[in-house]
Design goal:
With 436 residues, the chain is α/β, with parallel strands linked by helices. It contains 13 helices and 14 strands. The chain folds into two domains: 171 residues, Alpha-Beta Complex (Aspartate Aminotransferase, domain 1); 229 residues, 3-Layer(aba) Sandwich (Aspartate Aminotransferase, domain 2). The radius of gyration is 22 Å and the shape is globular.
């Protein structure tokens, strides 16, 4: 073209979680039976949406209002409902005007990072959920600035690493927290969250906290919402949604809650720019907003959610017990969300390792996919695992980390099949590492 039309950050936009679906589909067409353990979609993995929830949605769909625009910030009665819930926590106090709805948190993430000044950076965790790290890197046209989640310490944030990155990088304006965490399944204790808030206050930074899994914790851990620890001095954004909790990922409905948003003129101007961007778009989808209070206040809601959480707790322990003693990988018990990450010990992966694949066409396809010079070693393992066993996971290196490993979901509902999948992975790891 006569002029370059490509955004400076376009190369940073990657999403291996869905990209690997293309690989799986190609191998599936060649006869591989695929277990899709890559995407955090409970519905795709067979989650049964209860009748009472469907009735609420169906009833709202009969109302003319569900077909119209909502206010730009979202349906007022729904924002009032969320305001009451948040204020009842006893921490940060908000009004309905401090809430903005989006078409899923992907939409919110795009605008939150997209409307930052290009030279202003948000330090993100490593490993980090790809949508966040890619959006942050894309807005700046550079690799993400990251702080370490320590696999040797329950995947908790390394507070010293956060402070060092802030100290030596004056461009850092904010800190991203994902709690409960995706991709690791870690849930952060209160003292760590308070320490991050103190770091932000000391350095005049703001905080973004992805809390979409806030109400999905287990194994005796306690959910600590950002609202309860943020205090009154640090401006912050909490990101929440209904895609995982209800679950309704196809509803594309998420929102942000802004804490301490009016004390800092620059932060207030930044939030207004996000709202103005949403105003240009007009609004978010009306139907999911209308039903949110009705579903969450239904007498069966907590029972339904607790049944799901109990299952994730059981499966997290099954998965941990199967993988914990596999030599060559480091794995932690998950305590929230529905993911588990495993990291290979440094130096164990090579570009000569493989797994046996009986189907010659599948084997040649996998070999061709991993033959390039820029294929990470854990991606090589993941592709061989897929071709050899049909188990589809995501390379850990695709989550903005130098660690080599994989992320897998805990969403398979059939316990016998779930155990089989993790035993298959355990066997494959041993076989793969022995093939060097």
């Amino acid at each position: 073209m006569r002029t370059d039309i490509v955004h400076i950050g376009a190369g940073e936009l990657t999403y291996e979680i869905r990209n690997i679906v293309n690989v799986g589909m190609k191998l599936q067409a060649l006869g591989v039976r695929v277990n899709w353990e890559n995407i955090g979609d409970p519905v795709a993995k067979g989650e049964i949406i209860p009748g009472w929830m469907k009735d609420i949605v169906a009833g709202a769909a009969q109302e003319d209002a569900s077909y119209g625009y909502s206010p730009t910030k979202g349906v007022l009665t729904t924002r009032e409902y969320i305001t009451r819930e948040t204020n009842a926590l006893g921490g940060a106090q908000i009004t309905p005007e401090d809430i903005i709805f989006f078409n899923g948190l992907g939409d919110a993430i795009s605008k939150i990072f997209g409307f930052l000044k290009r030279t202003a950076r948000v330090i993100v965790p490593t490993p980090s959920y790809t949508t966040h790290s890619s959006a942050e890197a894309a807005h700046a046209g550079d690799r993400p600035v990251t702080y370490i989640l320590d696999p040797k310490n329950n995947w908790y944030p390394d507070l010293g690493d956060i402070e060092n990155h802030i100290k030596y990088n004056p461009a850092v304006a904010g800190i991203l927290i994902i709690n409960p965490d995706n991709p690791t399944g870690a849930v952060y204790p209160e003292h760590i969250l308070r320490a991050i808030v103190e770091i932000a206050e000391k350095n005049d930074l703001f905080i973004i906290c992805d809390e979409v899994y806030q109400n999905m914790v287990y194994n005796g851990t306690k959910s600590v919402p950002l609202a309860t620890v943020i205090g009154t001095k640090v401006p912050a954004i909490s990101m929440r949604g209904l895609s995982k909790e209800m679950p309704w990922p196809g509803g594309r409905c998420g929102w942000i809650e802004v804490y301490n948003g009016h004390d800092d003129p620059l932060f207030e101007k930044y939030i207004n720019s996000i709202f103005n961007a949403k105003m240009v778009e007009v609004c978010s989808t009306t139907l999911p907003q209308l039903v949110l209070p009705k579903i969450k206040s239904h007498p069966e809601y907590n029972n339904y959610l607790n049944e799901r959480i109990s299952r994730y707790e059981k499966y997290s322990n099954i998965a941990y017990d199967i993988l914990k003693d596999v030599k060559g990988i480091l794995v932690n018990r998950t305590n929230g969300a529905f993911y588990m990450s495993a990291a290979f010990e440094e130096g164990l992966l090579t570009d000569t390792q493989s797994l046996p694949i009986e189907n010659n066409e599948v084997r040649l396809t996998v070999e061709n996919m991993v033959s390039g010079p820029d294929v990470s070693l854990d991606k090589r393992f993941v592709y061989y695992l897929l071709g050899s066993t049909g188990v589809c996971v995501v390379p850990l290196s695709s989550f903005a980390t130098s660690l080599q490993g994989f992320r897998i979901t805990l969403l398979e509902r059939n316990e016998e099949e779930f155990i089989k999948i993790f035993k298959t992975i355990a066997t494959a790891i041993k076989q793969y590492l022995a093939s060097a």
